[in-house]
C-alpha cells in the first residue's frame, strides 16, 4: 500500500497547499505602505548596520581622546618655572635700566656678558634635564590607568554576554536591542560630560553592556529574519561592514573634533545619531516569517569545545591579532606624545590604516582564500601581525606609523578570513555541527584579546618601556606560528555522528510501506 507523506518542507508542493504562496502575496499586497515599510527587511538590515557602525565608532572615537584628556586632567597646567639669577646678573640689569633712564648708552663688558650667558645656559640645562625624567615618569604611570580604562569594556562584555543571551531568548531580539541603544546613549553622554577618571570608567563599562545587547541582538535578529543562507550571509556582511567602517572613521573623527571643537562635541554628535537610529529601530517591525526554529540536533557544550586543541589553536589566532591591536590602542598615543609631540588629529589618524586595510583585504581575499590553504593564510597573517610591531620603535615621524599600522591590518584580515571558516569546519568534523557555538567562541576570543591586551600593555610599558613591549608582542606571535601547521589536516573525531546527525533530504512520496513501518 502506497502512502503519500507531505512533510513540512514539502508543504508548498502538495495540492492542498498549492495556493498558500498566492494567499501570502495577496495578504502582503493588502498591507498599507506604512506597514510594508515597517516590515521591510532592507530597512532592518540598514538599522542593524548603522547600530554596529555607531557601536564601533564609539569604541574607536575615544582612542585619540582619552590618553590626551587624562594627561591634561592630571596635569592641568605646566607653568614655566621662574629663573633664579645671581647678584651679578641683577646688578647688570639694574645698570642697564639706569643707563636707559639717563639716556646714556652703556654696553655690557665682554666678561660680564659671557658670565650672564653661561649662567643662563646652565639654568636651561638644569630645567630641561629635570623636566624630561619627570615627564617620562608621568606618561609611564598614565599607561597603567589607560590600560585599565580600555580593558574595562571587554571585561564587562565578557561577564554580560551569557546573561544577555538568555534575556534575548526570553524577551526577544528587538526589545533587547532597543535596551542596548538606551545604554549606549547613556554611555555616550557620560563620556561627553564626565570629567573624572572614575566617571570615564563607568562610561566605558556601560559601553560594554551596550555592545553586548546590540551585537548579540542584531546578529540574532538577522539570523531569525533571513532563513536563506546566501541572503543571511549578505545581511551579516552588511552589518560587519558597518562595524569596520566605524573603526575606520572613529579615530580621525575623534581626534579632529577634540582638537578643533572640544571633548564634548564628538560625543554629542554620536548621541544624536544613536537617538535617530534607536527611533528607526522602534519604527521597524520584524517580519512575521522570522520565527525561531528549534533544532533537534544536540549541540556540543562550550566546555567540550574548550578542551579541543585544534579549536583552541584557531581561536588563539583570533585572540592574538586582537590583543596586538589592543597593545597599540593603549600605549601608542602615549609613546607618540612622549617622543613626537603630535597634534590630537595626528594621534587619531595613525589608527586609520588598520581598519581600512582590514576592510580592503576582507572584500578581496574571499576568492584567494578558496585557492590557498587556510592554515597557510593564517600563518602569513600572524607573521604580518607580529613583524610590524618591531618597526614601530624606529618611527621618527607621525606619518611613518601609517606603514606598520597598514601591514597589521592586512595580517589581521587574513587571519580572520581564514580562521572563522576553519572553526566551522572543525566543528563539522569533530563536534556534531554545533554551529551556534561558533559565534560565541569567536566573540569570546575577541573580547579576551581586547581585555587582556590593554591590561598587559600598561604593565609591560611601565616595566620595560615601549620598545620592550613591542618586542614582547612580536615574540609571542612568532612563538605561536609553529602551532598553525597543525590545522593543515586535523583528524576527524566524530565524522560518523556528524553525518548521521544531519537531517535527510525531504521526500514528498514514500512508496515502500515496509520501510516506513520499520522506521516508525
TrEMBL record:
Taken from the UniProt entry, a GO cellular component term is: membrane
Keyword terms, alphabetized:
Membrane, Transmembrane, Transmembrane helix, Transport
Task: Show the stretches that span the lipid bilayer.
Answer: 43-66, 146-164, 176-193, 234-253, 265-284, 310-328, 348-368, 375-394, 400-420, 440-461, 467-487
What are the protein's GO molecular function terms?
transmembrane transporter activity
Show where the Major facilitator superfamily (MFS) profile domain sits. 44-491
Return the InterPro entries for the record: MFS, MFS_dom, MFS_trans_sf, MFS_Vesicular_Transporter
Q: How does it sit in the membrane?
A: Multi-pass membrane protein
Pfam families, sorted: MFS_1
Key word ATP-binding present: no
UniProt xrefs under PROSITE patterns: MFS
Subcellular location as annotated: Membrane
Where does the protein principally reside? membrane
Spell out the Gene3D superfamilies in the cross-references.
MFS general substrate transporter like domains
Indicate whether Zinc-finger appears among the record's keywords. Answer: no
Q: Matching PANTHER family, A to Z?
A: GH10249P (PTHR23506:SF23)
Protein name, per record: Major facilitator superfamily (MFS) profile domain-containing protein
Amino acid at each position: 500500500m502506497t502512502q503519500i507523506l507531505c512533510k513540512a518542507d514539502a508543504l508548498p508542493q502538495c495540492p492542498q497547499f498549492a495556493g498558500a504562496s498566492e494567499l501570502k502575496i495577496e495578504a502582503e499586497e493588502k498591507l498599507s505602505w506604512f506597514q510594508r515599510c515597517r516590515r521591510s527587511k532592507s530597512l532592518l538590515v540598514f538599522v542593524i548596520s548603522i547600530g554596529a557602525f555607531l557601536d564601533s565608532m564609539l569604541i574607536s572615537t575615544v582612542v585619540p581622546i582619552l590618553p590626551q584628556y587624562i594627561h591634561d586632567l592630571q596635569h592641568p597646567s605646566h607653568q614655566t618655572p621662574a629663573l633664579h639669577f645671581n647678584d651679578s646678573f641683577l646688578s647688570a640689569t639694574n645698570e642697564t635700566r639706569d643707563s636707559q633712564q639717563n639716556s646714556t648708552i652703556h654696553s655690557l663688558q665682554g666678561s660680564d656678558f659671557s658670565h650672564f650667558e653661561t649662567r643662563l645656559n646652565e639654568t636651561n640645562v638644569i630645567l630641561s634635564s629635570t623636566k624630561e625624567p619627570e615627564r617620562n615618569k608621568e606618561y609611564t604611570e598614565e599607561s597603567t590607568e589607560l590600560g585599565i580604562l580600555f580593558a574595562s569594556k571587554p571585561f564587562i562584555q565578557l561577564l554580560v554576554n551569557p546573561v544577555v543571551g538568555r534575556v534575548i531568548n526570553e524577551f526577544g531580539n528587538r526589545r533587547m536591542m532597543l535596551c542596548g541603544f538606551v545604554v549606549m546613549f547613556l554611555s555616550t553622554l557620560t563620556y561627553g560630560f564626565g570629567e573624572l577618571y572614575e566617571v570615564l570608567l563607568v562610561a566605558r563599562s556601560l559601553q560594554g553592556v551596550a555592545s553586548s545587547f546590540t551585537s548579540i541582538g542584531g546578529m540574532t535578529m538577522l539570523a531569525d529574519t533571513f532563513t536563506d543562507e546566501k541572503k543571511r550571509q549578505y545581511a551579516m556582511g552588511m552589518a560587519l561592514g558597518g562595524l569596520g567602517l566605524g573603526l575606520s572613521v572613529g579615530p580621525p573623527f575623534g581626534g579632529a573634533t577634540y582638537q578643533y571643537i572640544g571633548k564634548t562635541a564628538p560625543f554629542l554628535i554620536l548621541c544624536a545619531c544613536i537617538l535617530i537610529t534607536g527611533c528607526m529601530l522602534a519604527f521597524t517591525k520584524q517580519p512575521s516569517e522570522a520565527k525561531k526554529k528549534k533544532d533537534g540536533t544536540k549541540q556540543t557544550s562550550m566546555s567540550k569545545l574548550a578542551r579541543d586543541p585544534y579549536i583552541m589553536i584557531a581561536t588563539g589566532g583570533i585572540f592574538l591579532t586582537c590583543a596586538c591591536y589592543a597593545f597599540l590602542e593603549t600605549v601608542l598615543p602615549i609613546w607618540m606624545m612622549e617622543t613626537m609631540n603630535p597634534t590630537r588629529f595626528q594621534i587619531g589618524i595613525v589608527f586609520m590604516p588598520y581598519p581600512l586595510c582590514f576592510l580592503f583585504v576582507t572584500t578581496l581575499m574571499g576568492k584567494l582564500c578558496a585557492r590557498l590553504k587556510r592554515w597557510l593564510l593564517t600563518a602569513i597573517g600572524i607573521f604580518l601581525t607580529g613583524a610590524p610591531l618591531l618597526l614601530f620603535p624606529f618611527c621618527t615621524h607621525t606619518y611613518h606609523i601609517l606603514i606598520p599600522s597598514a601591514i597589521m591590518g592586512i595580517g589581521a584580515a587574513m587571519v580572520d578570513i581564514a580562521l572563522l571558516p576553519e572553526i566551522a569546519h572543525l566543528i563539522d568534523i569533530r563536534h556534531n555541527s554545533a554551529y551556534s557555538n561558533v559565534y560565541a567562541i569567536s566573540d569570546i576570543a575577541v573580547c579576551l584579546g581586547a581585555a587582556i591586551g590593554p591590561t598587559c600593555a600598561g604593565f609591560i610599558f611601565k616595566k620595560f618601556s615601549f620598545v620592550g613591549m613591542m618586542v614582547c608582542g612580536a615574540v609571542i606571535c612568532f612563538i605561536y606560528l609553529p602551532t598553525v601547521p597543525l590545522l593543515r589536516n586535523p583528524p576527524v573525531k566524530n565524522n560518523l555522528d556528524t553525518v548521521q546527525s544531519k537531517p535527510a533530504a525531504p521526500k514528498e512520496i514514500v512508496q515502500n510501506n515496509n520501510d516506513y513501518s520499520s522506521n516508525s
